[in-house]
Design a protein that fits this description.
Helix content: 40-55%
Number of helices: 13
Number of domains: 2
CATH architecture of the largest domain: Alpha-Beta Barrel
Shape: globular
Distance between the termini: 26 Å
Oligomer: single chain
Order of helices and strands: HHHHEHEEEHEHEHEHEHEHEHH
Largest sheet: 8 strands, parallel, barrel
Length: about 325
């Protein structure tokens, strides 16, 4: 399987330098990341919303090693919200955030116990509290312009902290969403807890290299888990967000929604910018809510490599481009 190899390369400084230096890289990256600044991205937002699509915006960047960098990430999202306010698009454009960008990993937790969503876990302090302090003003500012924030899921070691922050934010901002990953063994239980009235939950397959002790490793196992978890969400009282490009899973999602008696505005599909654009438009034309996950920024490498790892077709596209234009 190439996925784990590519994910390993995403953490390699040598591979980062090699790929960044390739002349064709920017042309290919632009397929997935259509700009580096807020100014770059505003025309994209206007173009996609004019076509009946909705968006979730991600300011890319994951290598946060200081509190100052975490504060800069917070400020980048606040700047985005300032620009979105002038467009008056409300909930058509929300934001996705990775808590690692807000300082979640600075420093390690203590050894005391905290009753987290999945049971007793190490008490959170330091990075956890820093991430909560940095993300709260972003969530507040988003609410002020009529939209919201979804907390992206990262590797399994971060999830108890993420869910605890999610619960804390929902006390004042109940529309705050979160992401769950089908390949993790724990996720079906998480979904049952989260599928409550007022919740917003995005289900994805998962794009991090996880050990066999905590995650399914085979595609067919992940797909079956995805369907089981999606059924839980569709039959629950929350708002499911179906994060997949897989035509079979999209059809299954529509069938599960129909069986659960859901109207088209009671769930949504989410896909990445640059992947299956025609399908985005087809679903929107049928009356579905279709939200495009749109990333921008200069620190694109980790995000780009995970897109290659998720789907062999993405890697083939990149390699063909390097051969034909390199």
């Amino acid at each position: 399987m190439l996925g784990p190899v590519i994910l390993a390369a995403s953490r390699s400084d040598r591979m980062r330098r090699l790929i960044s230096a390739a002349p064709v890289t920017k042309q290919v990256v632009d397929r997935f990341i259509p700009g580096e600044t807020v100014t770059d991205i505003v025309p994209i937002v206007e173009e996609l919303t004019a076509k009946g699509l909705e968006l979730t915006m991600d300011v890319v960047g994951e290598d946060i090693t200081t509190p100052e960098q975490a504060a800069a990430a917070r400020d980048a999202y606040l700047a985005l919200i300032d620009h979105l306010a002038t467009l008056e698009l409300g909930e058509k454009v929300e934001m996705s955030v990775k808590l690692s960008m807000f300082g979640q990993a600075l420093p390690s937790p203590t050894t005391a116990l905290f009753e987290g969503p999945s049971g007793p876990t190490p008490a959170f302090q330091g990075g956890h509290e820093l991430a909560l302090a940095n993300v709260r003003p972003v969530v507040e500012a988003a609410a002020a312009i009529g939209t919201t924030v979804t907390l992206d899921a990262e590797d399994h070691t971060t999830l108890d902290s993420m869910f605890a922050i999610h619960e804390e934010l929902r006390k004042d901002f109940p529309q705050t969403g979160c992401v769950i990953q089908a390949y993790l063994f724990r996720t079906e239980s998480d979904a049952r807890r989260l599928a409550a009235a007022g919740s917003r939950v995005r289900l994805v397959k998962g794009a991090y290299k996880e050990p066999a002790e905590v995650a399914y490793q085979q595609k067919h196992e992940i797909d079956k888990a995805y369907v089981r978890i999606l059924k839980v969400l569709m039959e629950g009282e929350g708002y499911p967000m179906v994060g997949s490009h897989d035509p079979r899973l999209i059809s299954i999602a529509q069938e599960l929604a129909h069986r659960a008696g859901r109207k088209m505005d009671e769930y949504e599909f989410q896909m990445l910018y640059g992947i299956r654009g025609d399908e985005h438009l087809r679903l929107a034309a049928e009356g579905h809510r279709m939200r495009v996950y749109t990333a921008y920024g200069t620190d694109w490498y980790g995000y780009f490599m995970r897109r290659l790892a998720e789907k062999p077709a993405n890697l083939r596209f990149f390699l063909r481009s390097m051969v034909s234009k390199g």
